[in-house]
Amino acid sequence: MVVELGHKVLELSMYIDGEWYGETREKRKIINPATGEVIAEAAEGTITDARLAIQAAREAFDHGKWPELSAEERADFSIKNSR
């Protein structure tokens, strides 16, 4: 059962190498299993999206500042950019 309540449903896209992807793609409903409530709709990723993300991550790790950051700095960055 899927229940859609009156709250705002999050619309999730993919952020890959500084660009947003998936706004025009088919969306998958994300459902809270405890309530059956739709809490978000996420863009469907493709194999190409996955390859782009892997390539960007590899590039950032090999040539960016990421490997020089401490675990605490990485966590702070991830938390700050997840909002």
Write the layout of secondary structure elements.
Elements (H helix, E strand, L loop, with lengths): L9 E3 L1 E3 L2 E3 L5 E5 L6 E6 L3 H17 L7 H10 L3
Parallel strand pairs: 1-5
Antiparallel strand pairs: 2-3, 4-5
Explained architecture:
It contains 2 helices and 5 strands, in the order E-E-E-E-E-H-H. With 83 residues, it is α+β, with helices and mostly antiparallel strands. It has one domain (10-80). The protein has a 3-stranded mixed beta sheet with strand order 1-5-4, with no helix packed on it. The mean pLDDT is 87.
N- to C-terminal separation? Answer: 29 Å
User: How confident overall, as mean pLDDT?
Assistant: 87
> Could you tell me the strand content as a percent range?
15-25%
Unreliable residue runs:
none
Structural class: alpha+beta
Roughly what percent helix?
25-40%
How many structural units, i.e. domains?
Answer: 1
H and E order: EEEEEHH
Strand count, sense and closure of the main sheet? 3 strands, mixed
Number of strands: 5
Strand order of the largest sheet: 1-5-4
> What is the number of helices?
2
Radius of gyration using CA atoms only: 16 Å
Shape: globular
